[in-house]
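Page 47, continued from p. 46.
Same chain as before, 312 aa.
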Amino acid sequence: MAKRARPTSKKKPSTAAAIFRSLRVHQWIKNGLVFVPLVLGGLIGEHDAWSYASLGFLALSLAASASYILNDIRDIESDRRHWSKRDRPFASGALSIRTGYALAALLLIAAFGVAALIGPEEMVMLAIYVIAALSYTLYWKRIPVFDIFVLASLFTFRIALGILILDVRISPWLMIFSMFVFLSLSAAKRHTELLRNGIEEKQYLPGRGYLAGDAPLLLGLGLAAMLGAVLINIVYLLEDAFPRAVYGNPVWLWSVPPVIFLFLGRIWLLSQRGLLLDDPVAFALKDRVSLSLALVGGLGFAAALIGLPTPS
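Result:
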């Protein structure tokens, strides 16, 4: 007599694990941009600067996690139809919407509590970030082209918060450069979503305002922003880095523009081939080639900062 097959069922993740996933802690790496002014402002050896920047990083990360949760609740229906987002805690049913709202409120309270340790101006800046992030979730993410501009602005805002916290003078070229880099990456994010969702030519991308036929437009915008970022970086070197003599040997900084071109070019090559993940930043953190390019750029910057002699 044949044995009855035992029923199999997919083990449901614990509530604690689902809550942790909803925070998207891996995305906190983006908030490391608040440390950029610390490095470029010559405050690497200042303990207080690291302390205040770390508080800013924590406050921004807690606020960002709250916005991620509210975003997932808002997009719960479209996420359930998405090839990868359907496994998110709220879309999969691992967490209830009520739990999400309660968790987001606690995170925001904690974020502003941490910001209060830095100062009132930082609390105002954090409030501006939260409002901008929520407006993106509620409205801008559904408006083509404007959505990638707001995303790039949120990235650049992190650098602005670091400048405010540390009270340092940073070249305005840095802010412009940041906008162009993240415009390119944001366009790649949308471009990838269009290619990987398999929607028909005249269908809208779920939860967004793009049609499948908009992929070439995003490709053009992204590549233009990429080349703009490289050009702006070169202008910064010629007009700011070399004349100010902030670096011991700025010649090493010429290693940075090729790294930017190769990194963003690779992102767009993979996006066009449909091999890129939804989030280019998260992809880059696991991609060996991208990490190797970052190492080369970092070594070039370090050599310029300490004044390492160039080979004769």
